[in-house]
Amino acid sequence: MSKILAIGTANPAHRHQQNDIMQFMLDANNPDEKNRKLLPILYHRSGIDTRYSVFSDFSLARGQWAFFGDNCTMPSLEKRMTFYNQEAVKLSVSAIEDCLNSIEKPTDIQEITHLITVTCTGITAPGLDIQLVQALNLSPNIVRTSVNFMGCYAALHALKIADAFCRADASAKVLVVCTELCTLHFQKSNDVDAILSSTLFADGSAACIISGDKSAKGLEIKQFYSQIALSGQADMAWQLSSTGFLMTLTNHVPKLIKHEIKHLLENSLQKLGIETESITDWAIHPGGKNILEAVESSLELAPDALAESYDVLKNYGNMSSPTILFVLKKMMEDSNKKGNIFAIAFGPGITMESVILER
């Protein structure tokens, strides 16, 4: 069985209070009376205190906005992608360095045999994988894989690929890097879906190392299980446009997850041959407060069962793919705890991707 040996995280320099972002949205969108009343309600109910962004604009008054300009003119897709190429690699390197510093057994970056990069907020070729090979001086014939446009569940999909590499090659040491600049794609809109998205998303990066080394300490990967709720395809989507990526996120998503997740958990446990009682910890992707509440209700969890997920949501918001790794990192920091972790993340499809890990 392969193991997650360490997880590292990083965020951009600009840390914004949720209330400051709300004021930016009010100034930028100039909403009608109905949405001007709705927007503060959504922000105050979000369960988020702070979020990070590569931009300082979200804490500044109109007239000081650098990227979006005084009139909040929407930048072109080309401008956004140019900025992504400048910033994503730096943030990724910071997360990788934090990962290497967190690992119990000293690991040289040159020991990495496989590189998996994950993103849905910037797509270019050559892309983030090539940039990291150059920035970290990795071997030019390292095995590279890119996971793109899968959204918030993509980190677990990347872990599945890493696990397969390690099972096929006992000497494999796989580096997974998830980097998202979600705030890069802010859209000036009074559409309710756009307003809902603006309350949640943030920027961040997470990196982890997976190895088949049986003697190493870490989270042992036991079982992957995924399920698609096709009825929700229109409720969570990510489309390209001339002015950036357009996010669709409806309030039906938590209801759908609440309906589907218990069945998914039962199938996953049955496949591994264990009972619900053997799950000691729950790492749920904090896609939003309503999603966490839906999972709590459906699985009848104790009030503090999702403490790590709520904490990540409160302090970082939803960073898309890195977010579940932020939750798992918090769990790894408590080295005294033992038992099985059930981790799950959600994305377009609606896809529900899960993994059972053992401390």
Automatic annotation (TrEMBL):
Family: Belongs to the thiolase-like superfamily. Chalcone/stilbene synthases family.
Classification via Gene3D superfamilies: 3.40.47.10
Keyword Transferase: yes
Superkingdom field: Bacteria
Record-level Gene Ontology MF annotations: acyltransferase activity, transferring groups other than amino-acyl groups
Active site: 152 (acyl-thioester intermediate)
InterPro entries: Chalcone/stilbene_synt_C (IPR012328), Chalcone/stilbene_synt_N (IPR001099), Polyketide_synthase_type-III (IPR011141), Thiolase-like (IPR016039)
Pfam families xrefs: Chal_sti_synt_C, Chal_sti_synt_N
Name this protein carries in UniProt: Chalcone synthase
Keyword list, A-Z: Transferase
The organism of origin for this protein: Emticicia aquatilis
Residues passing through the membrane, by range: none
The UniProt record lists the keyword Transferase: yes
GO BP terms in the entry: polyketide biosynthetic process
